[in-house]
Amino acid sequence: MDHTLPLISTLALAFGLALVFGYFAERLRFPALVGYLFAGILCSGHTPGPVADMELASQLSELGVILLMFGVGLHFSIQDLLKVRHIAIPGAVLQMSIATVLGLCFAMYVWHWELSAALIFGLCLSCASTVVLLKALELHGHLNTVDGQISVGWLVVEDIATVLILVLLPPIAAILGVGAEPGQASEPMSISQMLYIIGSTLLRVVAFVAVMLLVGRKLIPWALWKVAKTGSRELFTLFVLFASIGIAFGAAVVFEVSFALGAFFAGMVLRESPYARRAAHDSLPLQDAFSVLFFVGVGMMLDWHVLINEPLGILTMLAIIMFGKSITAFLLVHFLRYPLHTSLNVGAALAQIGEFSFILAAQGIALGMVDEVVLSMIVAASILSIAFNPFMFAMIPTVRRLAVRYFAWARAAAMVTDPYSVLPKETSRRVLAGQTILVGSGSVTKRVVKDLKAQDIPMVSIVEDTSVVEDMRKAGMAVIGGDPTDPMVLVQAHIVTASILVITDLDAVKALKAVDMAKQLNPEIQIYVRASSTAEAEHLRKEGITNVWNDVESISNFISARIVNAYAPDEEDEDKASAAAAGAH
Predict the structure, then answer these.
(1) Residue 502, SS3 per DSSP
(2) pLDDT tens-digit profile of 7-29?
């Protein structure tokens, strides 16, 4: 495409094709991201028709990674990260090691590749995509669950490990006798030099984390509070963008860590601010838009000819990614004695590769360790794994049901429960008869909880964010952590004996699922649902939910009632005056 405005033309082409093919993918009951990948393939230089700027698309997709990781950090506290360190650190290290060795051995002994190329191949298969993981967790409602926190913590460890690997690749290439140019001599590297490189890299990562936790944790929320006090919406949004993009860029330049890791810690320290929820809300549209560009950018990297030239190689890679990695992660989590659903969710979450695999492959090409055919194969396998990853999550209930039916170890693992998935032992019997079940943890829910406590009305809360569950339990409340659309969660809340179900913080689709499940378990229960807009409220009413309200209607009714009441005394005085006059006559 001959154009003089490459940025605008790239955005127009990428967004337009992503919209069209994302829509068709949804209509065909495929995940929308499959359509985004296909859109990228169509606007690449490997297919006829209009071509987007690959370099610009790559940078724009990197913005999507930054904003998405920043948004995750806003919902992921430091305590959450520390709570999963016992599984995330050993799990990520072992899983990456096993996947690398598996890919290396296969490439060396089956395909007869050189050691350097086999090593790059194994490393590329070992690291999962952060963006794909987050989209999958968000789509299936697992982002704020314990399973989601373990998966995100696992990926944070993988990001740190990948940063270390990228720094170590040049000396590894030198040790293996590989040069950046054909015939280039490579100098051997001593053990002390290797240890120095590893130590300095780890020191930079530790220094970055220390700066963010000791300085950024105080400075960034304070600065956001100062900006918010100006009352300027534009300045607030600018600060949020600067905090995410600026800190990610600074972390990469000064400490040489990844953009994703820098943005994640920026969001995590900003979570300390009382304006964190508003920051998350303001950055959400940008996260969605630029994460779409990430998938389009991945699709643009594919040279479809490799599917014809190397079909068996790509299928082998796909098998290692989707089954080798998934089974490895499943077994690691299972042997650490976590519940069956956690093992399955983590296994499915890691059954894909993405951005870091491309970076590793590109670095390998620059160092002369692999050729560009390997990069094309990895991109093809990555696209297929990303496209199939949502189906891995969709298969979890079926796999879980079959495993529990036929295997004793699966039944034992299914009995292992998350402590937050059941009510506290000290919960009063009075709370479990005729109680109100509250779903949500926002400001409206908190006010309802306060009012019900003041009236001594029995209630049980269902909250997806485990950090909120922990705080509520410390306050002595009956609360369950879990997905309100899961029948087991509703059963744990004693839905059968409840009289009222109140849903305040769910989108319309998820609210309908929760209502449908609640009615199946307790047909007599009264249901109240809060909608986010008038249109959503109308949709819920059409689905048969009569007790629906939204903020606009509630506030307008409240104001109208106050105005009417203000006029009522005057009208009553006029009536009394008229009656008195009539009596006088």
Answers:
(1) strand
(2) 888 889 989 999 999 899 888 87
* Nearest CA among 31, 134, 115, 127 for reference residue 388: 31
DSSP state of 583: H
Give the DSSP per-residue string, 280-339: HHHHHHHHHHHHHHHHHHHHHT--THHHHH-HHHHHHHHHIIIIIHHHHHHHHHHHTT--
Pair of tokens at residue 491? 């059963």
List the domain boundaries for the chain. 54-411, 419-557
Only one residue has tokens 């950055």, namely 283
* Stretch (H or E) spanning 396: helix 396-406
Query: pLDDT (tens digit, 9 = 90+) per residue, 295-350?
Result: 888 888 888 888 888 888 899 889 989 888 899 889 988 888 888 888 898 899 88
Q: State the Cα–Cα distance between residues 529 and 474, nearest whole angstrom.
A: 27
Burial of residue 96 (CB within 10 Å: 0-12, 13-18, 19+) is buried
> Are 451 and 443 spatial neighbours (Cβ–Cβ below 8 Å)?
no
Tokens of 382: 């990555």
CATH code for the part of the protein at 54-411: 1.20.1530.20
10 Å Cβ neighbour count for 188? 9
Q: Which of 464, 456, 543 is nearest to 529 (CA)?
A: 543
Q: Are 28 and 258 in contact (CB under 8 A)?
A: no
- Token pair 């993918």 is at which residue? 25
Provide the residue count of the chain: 585
Least confident of 8-12, 186-190, 223-227, 425-429: 186-190
CATH superfamily, domain at 419-557: NAD(P)-binding Rossmann-like Domain (3.40.50.720)
Helix (H), strand (E), coil (C) string for 274-286: CCHHHHHHHHHHH
